[in-house]
Every structure is written in structure tokens, then in C-alpha cells.
TrEMBL record:
Name of the protein: Tetratricopeptide repeat protein
Signal peptide bounds: 1-26
Organism: Psychrobacter saeujeotis
PANTHER family according to UniProt: DAP3-BINDING CELL DEATH ENHANCER 1
Coiled coil: none
SUPFAM superfamilies according to UniProt: HCP-like
Lineage: Bacteria, Pseudomonadati, Pseudomonadota, Gammaproteobacteria, Moraxellales
Keywords for the protein's UniProt record, in alphabetical order: Signal
Length: 299
């Protein structure tokens, strides 16, 4: 009755999400300057900040190609943030033709300079086999480097590898430990996964109350899977009084985010007479591709 994301192996994060707050501040402060003044700066950090300005389009016209050129100039001076951003741009094809091999090259340079996010992204390239042969053991090696430095997504991915037995023997206890570290760092996927471990007794005694607690933390960050799972607890009366209306409320939150499993469950609640179907329009075969058989299938 539950829906669980077994692991989230993030390939990379978009450039805009990885810029440090200090560099964002620096880029924003450039609004009072013009591009000609900025272009006269010549330290690696200043060149990098100008690249940020072009990438963000805040204090200079947005121009990914120009941002790429400036990041490359700073990266050639061994500026690790610029090396990492070149890796991201190559991996995602932003401002340059997508090229996983070159993304790996720049990530490796950044990682050698101590960039933890680069270590994580190297792990993901190995996990997905992009630009390199797929090797789960190498993915684990690089994820661990980042995870040991407190990178939440890397900790999450370590949990996923141990949960599924990729590159290591399957080990729910170790998976739980890594998920707990990531959850403590605010990772909502890890929080949801802890909930499913407690709900199903994977590596820990089954405890619906703790499952509800962790699902709630993830749902508070708008994770649709957690909203779906809370709905399932209410529908079945696990740790909470059985309440079909509350189940519907949580299913609808998930369905509103495009979760088709939530739409199926709403359809079943209506067809089984558990809730009043009047004015409920969330279910649509055209939008979800569901069939009557999908709705009637048991949880």
C-alpha cells in the first residue's frame, strides 16, 4: 500500500543551485557596476564572479556561452568552483554541447581541489555509466568521499546503494544509517525512505508511528511520495485512526503534483464508496493514462 523511492541518485544539480551564498552576493552586488568595469577584473575569483553574472543575468545580460568562457578562464587558473561549474555545464549541455567525458574531466579536477559536490557528481556518472563504464563500486567510492564530508545527497545515494545491493552486499542496517544521516541534513527523500523502512520493518522493528513521523517531515517539504504514503497510513488505519477523508486529502496533495498512483487511489476510494465523489475531478483517464482495471486493482 505504500510507495517508496528506493533511491535518488542525482546526476548533478543545476548551476544556479550550487553557487555559494557569498558568490551569489558578489554577483548581485555587481548590479551597481557595468559590464565593462567587471571585464577589467583579472583574478580567478573575479573572472568567476563575472561568469556568475552572465549566467544569472542579474548584473549582465544572460549569456550562457559567455559564462562558459569565463568559467573556463577561471578554471584554467585552478579555481575549483569554476571547474565544477564547467562540469555541470558539459553534463547538462548548458552553453556548450553536452559531453559527459568532458564533464568527468572537469569534475575530477574540481574533486582533486577538494570540491565535495564534484565528488558526488563523479559518483553519479559512474552509477549511470555516462562518459564512463557503469561501475557501482566506483560510484560508491566517490559518493562516500562526499558523504563523509556531510553532503546530504551523497549520503542518500550511499543508502540507496546499500539498500539495493549495488556495488556492495545488500544491507538494510547500513542503508538505514546513511539515510538517517541524510535525513538529519534535511534531505526529504531520505526522510521518506526512513518512513518506509519503519513501515515495513527493513533493518528496524516495524513502527507505523515512526513511519508517520518521517513521512510527515518529508511531506512538509512537499514530497509527493511522502504525501502518498501518509494517505496510505490513513486509509489503512496504521498508527492513526482510519480516516478516508484524510486519506483523500493527502492523496490529492500528491495527485496535484502529478503523482498518478495517488490519482488511482482516489479513484478507488470513490468507486468503493469510501468518500463522496461529488466534485472530485482529479481522476482522468486522458490525463493519467489509467484504465478502469487500474482503479479496481487492490492496494
Amino acid at each position: 500500500m505504500y510507495q517508496r523511492k528506493f533511491y535518488t541518485l542525482t546526476q548533478s544539480i543545476l548551476l544556479a543551485t550550487v553557487l555559494s551564498s557569498s558568490l551569489i552576493t558578489a554577483a548581485c552586488s555587481a548590479e551597481s557596476s557595468n559590464t565593462e568595469i567587471l571585464s577589467n577584473q583579472n583574478t580567478a575569483a573575479e573572472i568567476y564572479e563575472l561568469g556568475v553574472a552572465y549566467y544569472e543575468g542579474n548584473s549582465a545580460p544572460q549569456n550562457y556561452e559567455k559564462a562558459f568562457e569565463l568559467f573556463q578562464e577561471a578554471a584554467n587558473q585552478k579555481y575549483s568552483d569554476a571547474q565544477f561549474n564547467l562540469g555541470v555545464m558539459y553534463e547538462n549541455g548548458v552553453g556548450i554541447t553536452q559531453n559527459y567525458e568532458k564533464a568527468m574531466q572537469w569534475y575530477l579536477l574540481a574533486a582533486d581541489n577538494g570540491d565535495f559536490e564534484a565528488q558526488k557528481n563523479i559518483g553519479s556518472l559512474y552509477y549511470f555509466g555516462k562518459g564512463v563504464d557503469q561501475k557501482y563500486d566506483k560510484a560508491l567510492e566517490w559518493y562516500k568521499k562526499a558523504a563523509d564530508q556531510g553532503i546530504g545527497v551523497a549520503q542518500l545515494n550511499m543508502g540507496g546503494l546499500y539498500e539495493n545491493g549495488y556495488g556492495v552486499p545488500q544491507d538494510y542496517d547500513t542503508a538505514f544509517e546513511w539515510y538517517a544521516l541524510a535525513a538529519d541534513n534535511g534531505d526529504f527523500d531520505a526522510q521518506n525512505n526512513l518512513g518506509t523502512f519503519y513501515e515495513n520493518g527493513y533493518g528496524v522493528p516495524q513502527d507505523y508511528g515512526k513511519a508517520f513521523e518521517w513521512y510527515t517531515k518529508a511531506a512538509a517539504q512537499d514530497l509527493d511520495l511522502a504525501q502518498l504514503n501518509i494517505g496510505g497510513l490513513y486509509e489503512n488505519g496504521y498508527s492513526v485512526p482510519q480516516d478516508y477523508d484524510k486519506a483523500f486529502e493527502w492523496y490529492q496533495k500528491a495527485a496535484d503534483q502529478g503523482n498518478q498512483q495517488a490519482s488511482k487511489r482516489i479513484g478507488r476510494l470513490v468507486m468503493n464508496g469510501k468518500i463522496d465523489g461529488k466534485d472530485i475531478v482529479i481522476y482522468s483517464t486522458q490525463e493519467t493514462g489509467l484504465t478502469l482495471g487500474d482503479i479496481e486493482a487492490p492496494l
